[in-house]
Amino acid sequence: VYGLAPYQVSKGLYRYDAQSGQLDASYGQGGYIDLSGTFDGKRFCFLSKLTCGPSYVYVSDSCNHRILRFSRQNGAFESAVAVPKANGIPGGLYHDGSSLWVLQRDVLQRYDASPSAPMSLAASAPLTSGGQPLKLVNPAGLTRAGSAAAPGLFFATGMHRLVAIDASGVVQGSYVGAGSYSAVRTPTGDIAVVAKGEILRFKPSLL
């Protein structure tokens, strides 16, 4: 299990044992990678999101509008890719095993994340709802449901809102509530959302 410490003076990427909850001392410097230095010519401005692929951990550097990837084996920095500033900060990351998906306020983008090549933009889909452009306020989470529950659908959060969208950016369902800030997929395939200090669980098929 990976986690970020974005606010400390010494920013870090941490790895924990999923069973014991203890730091995995074999990773980096006794369980974490120091991210307070310079990477690809810039210091991290704000560490906000992360996701994992088979070989790398992907971290969003929001204020610098870029995504960085680090080795899952030893924590070494590998590469960075810029995201369009015009679409706002990267508000959600999701890796599907081969591609990296990035949510911004009005667009869902897919990046080629092949281990054998630099990350690069492969596709970009504007968000739409009912045929009209959609802008999420403070997008803060992106995940995908289990294939049996809602095949191919992504679930994204903005302020007070959870939306189900397909890979072309079209909204297929939504829920409006108070304080929806992040979304994760549970082992059952349900979607869990943090809202005003509570965790709400949704059946993807019911949105």
Shape descriptor: globular
Multimerization state: single chain
Strand order, sheet with most strands: 6-7-8-9
Count of DSSP H/I helices: 0
Query: What integer value in Å does the Rg equal?
Result: 17 Å
- What order do the helices and strands follow? EEEEEEEEEEEEEEEEEEEEEE
Beta-strand content: over 45%
The low-confidence runs, each spanning 5 or more residues with pLDDT under 50, are: none
How far the N terminus sits from the C terminus, by CA atoms, comes to: 28 Å
Structural class by secondary-structure content: mainly beta
| Topology, number of strands | 22
Mean pLDDT: 86
Question: How helix-rich are the residues, as a percent range?
Answer: under 10%
What kind of sheet is the major sheet?
A: 4 strands, antiparallel
Question: How would you sum up this structure, described in words?
Answer:
- This protein has 207 residues and is mainly beta.
- The chain is 0% helix and 49% strand.
- The protein has no helices and 22 strands.
- It has a 4-stranded antiparallel β-sheet, with no helix packed on it. Strands 10-11-12-13 form a 4-stranded antiparallel β-sheet, with no helix packed on it. Strands 16-17-18-19 form a 4-stranded antiparallel β-sheet, with no helix packed on it.
- The protein is globular and about 50 Å long.
- It starts with a strand and ends in a 5-residue tail after the last strand.
